[in-house]
Amino acid sequence: MSESVKESRVQVAPGVSLYVERRDGNPGAAPFVLVHGLASNLRLWDGVAEELAARGHTVVALDQRGHGRSDAPESSYGNAVAVEDLRATVEALGLERPIVAGQSWGGNVVLEYGCRFPPETRGIVCVDGGIIELADWFPSWEACLAAMTPPTLTHLTRAELEARIRAGTPQLPDRAVAAALECFRVREDGRIEPRLALHRHLQIVRSLWESRPSARYKELTVPTLLVLADTGDTARTERKRHAEARAKASAANVRSHWFSPALHDVHSQYPDRVAALLADAVSDGFFA
Does the pLDDT of residue 115 top 80, yes or no? Predict the structure, then answer.
């Protein structure tokens, strides 16, 4: 790891600390906080973090509770807890009105953060997230649970998992594949297991099922950038476009940008392009 990256742990609740990485930039430049998605980890933000830091911004990336190198209490997962963890991290690190970016479920987390604490952020970025409303996607919780329960991969070795990732998403750069592999640990028997345990994963899915981000945009006052990925799934892209239009109609200061074609993990697929988009939104005055 580069010497310019400072590793630390931040206590966000009694007995719970999060692993964070910080790249310090110019004191006068807008700081960024990067939040990963469900069953992911901060490594997927590496390319974006490096590019933003090269442009002079202080950048903090964190592993959410239960993910990556952060602590994993048995309970207390979901949107509300994640927002409080995020706020505790920002306060502990002394970040002044950062731009908070989240991918997928992380986008829903930063949307709620922006709604609840507008004086504490100069803007939010939702990367293929912030519009995830599972109750619109599935007719019932049972259908949602069946679709959103992750497959069992514990029979695989790390090399076998890597081969699967490369075969399924050949457009991913090598560092993005390496980041995705960090969502798993290797057991003593040589097989893998997810860092986010299944029962914790499903607590977060339930929280997503119960959340209604579309209802939050009318209360949103901070500048908001939606970064959306057209993955080639026509039905899902249509739902995203509907959610995008609804968000723009509800909130006063929402900007959107589409990547097409692109993967859901567009931030790790095209880190330089995503970082440039975020930095340009600062330089052109969108994030005041």
Answer: yes
